[in-house]
Automatic annotation (TrEMBL):
InterPro entries: FSCA_dom_sf (IPR034904), NIF_FeS_clus_asmbl_NifU_C (IPR001075)
Protein name according to UniProt: Fe-S cluster biogenesis protein NfuA
Pfam families according to UniProt: NifU (PF01106)
Signal sequence annotation: none
Function: May be involved in the formation or repair of [Fe-S] clusters present in iron-sulfur proteins.
Length: 186
């Protein structure tokens, strides 16, 4: 059975296997293998849809919330377009989760929107204090959190608020001169 942390690896393995199917030389075998995958995905999707309907009909909001919060179930709900939260709502939750870890305040990351192509647009404020590596680490962490919460997004565009960059620290040469003498030890 897959553990929650294996979801990304399993998705990659499925994609690799599907790509291998496309390279089969026998078109009849390739077609049957692709049909098998399609039928299984549809079957599991239909079963998952029925689970969501039953949970919704019984007004078990807490159960649906727990299902949607599980990484493995959540990714399957997204795959079958059954997730109870929209892409923007899941991105907002991901941002709420990553802010404290990155030491960002409530206004440190702003969701500007998700466009029709599936690109998440974010605005970042007050990070890195001019250090490109700090900003890059923060941006990478945000992008990972967003993609984990909403794997269907096609990209994450992070813009920095204009005027938010601190001036670079300037280090100048020391003028040559007498070196200070160390204190003498008695």
């Amino acid at each position: 059975m897959l553990q929650a942390h294996d979801v990304q690896a399993a998705g990659g393995r499925v994609e690799a296997l599907i790509a291998e199917l496309a390279t089969l030389s026998d078109p009849a075998t390739r077609a049957k293998a692709e049909e098998l995958v399609r039928v299984l995905v549809e079957l599991y999707g239909a079963g998952l849809e029925r689970v969501v309907e039953i949970v919704t009909e019984t007004e078990a909001a807490e159960v649906l919330h727990r299902l949607a919060g599980d990484d493995l179930v959540s990714s399957l709900l997204v795959l079958h377009d059954l997730h109870p939260l929209s892409t923007a709502e899941r991105v907002r939750e991901a941002l709420d989760g990553v802010r404290p870890r990155l030491g960002l305040g409530e206004d440190g990351i702003e969701l500007l929107g998700v466009d029709e192509a599936g690109v998440v647009r974010l605005r970042l404020r007050g990070t890195g204090h001019g250090c490109p590596s700090s900003r890059s680490a923060v941006t990478d962490a945000i992008e990972r959190a967003v993609v984990q919460a909403a794997p269907e997004v096609s990209g994450v565009d992070v813009e920095e608020q204009a005027g938010d960059r601190a001036p670079l620290l300037q280090i100048q040469r020391h003028r040559p001169g007498p070196c200070p003498e160390p204190e003498k030890i008695p």
